[in-house]
Hints:
Shape: globular
Number of helices: 17
Number of strands: 3
Distance between the termini: 69 Å
Helix content: 40-55%
Radius of gyration: 27 Å
Structural class: mainly alpha
Amino acid sequence: MSKKQTDFLTLSEEVISELKGLGYMDSSLTNYRRLYRRVGSFMEEHAVKEYSPDWGKAFIDEYYPCDNDRRRMVSLMIRRIDDYLNDIPYRCHRAMKKPNVPPTFAGLLDDYQEYCKGIGNKPETVRIKKDFCLIFLQFLSDIGCNNIFEITAEIVAKSCLNYTNKDGYAVLRQFLRYLFEKSLISTDLSAIVPHHKRRQNVPSVFTPEEIKKMEDTITLDTPTGKRNLAILLLITRIGLRSGDIAELKLSSIDFSSSHVDLIQQKTGEPLSVFMPECVSSALKAHISINDPSLMDGYVFHSMSAPYGNLTTSIIRHIVKVCIVSAGIDVKGKKHGPHAFRSSLASNLVSGGTSYDTVRKILGHTDPDAVKHYVKTDIERLRKCALSPPEPTGVFLDLLCGRRHI
């Protein structure tokens, strides 16, 4: 092993500095920092002072036991730490070949990006659209089509084969409509591009009885218990994300109106949500015995020196302990804090609460964002089921075995 510093905080910052020097985007570096904070908290929970690759593997096995895309991505991020620690040169995990802008179409692409900005797309969205359009324009250049007016339905159809990420189809359709509306092509070819719909998994949810059982496992005879109950109720009763709980400030809580007002960490959008009495009481009980540690303005802190504000990793650990203590079967279910945000939404929808009210509670801006939670309400869906007609004719003969295909 290298003689590099094995203090994890120092080590992770050195890795991030190296990635920054390699041109990684700020959003990617933020994801690395977020994950490395979780690893650091994991080591603190196990009283580990120095990092080693074995602890990186233990972290992955603990939080990402399934062999899926998320585990592979986290494994890559941990490998960056391990490689740096062992003086292994930077290795790219895949060929990052990015098409260049064909000179013929450079001005066209610039105009399209300005159009996207004009309709309110955020910078990251504009960048993604640019990358997807580059695939199409590079294909045109490769086949010798240097005049946008010459593209045909056949060319568009063939270009679709170059998209390994089918999310690009929607961008290509919009780009072709833009070209038609600007009279840069004579025919609207957007209909040629196939539609691709992502598979939406049914969200993992827990029943109100299971959630209450979890809450009841917390004992309130210690400051840690009071803190953990307040955190759990913020998750289960008003659906706050763990990132928002970790960053929650005293100034965001108004006990007189029983509201929490904050700017969401994920979206940057404001959120104002009502606190039920149980949530308000739990927060008051926690704050009343933790005045010295609240001098920095944060509501939640670790219970041991140096008493820093809580991390999302510790919040996930609190939820996990409550699930285990309650003896709840989580087989086949996601069981992090976000699953209980989903549970709140599903239980509200099942109870007849309007989609718009649930959307406001969860802080979504998209009016359709919560509709997939209704998939979990099987009994309500049964009422929408239609009885099949009685079989007749050839179909009846097939069912009875009197006829064969």
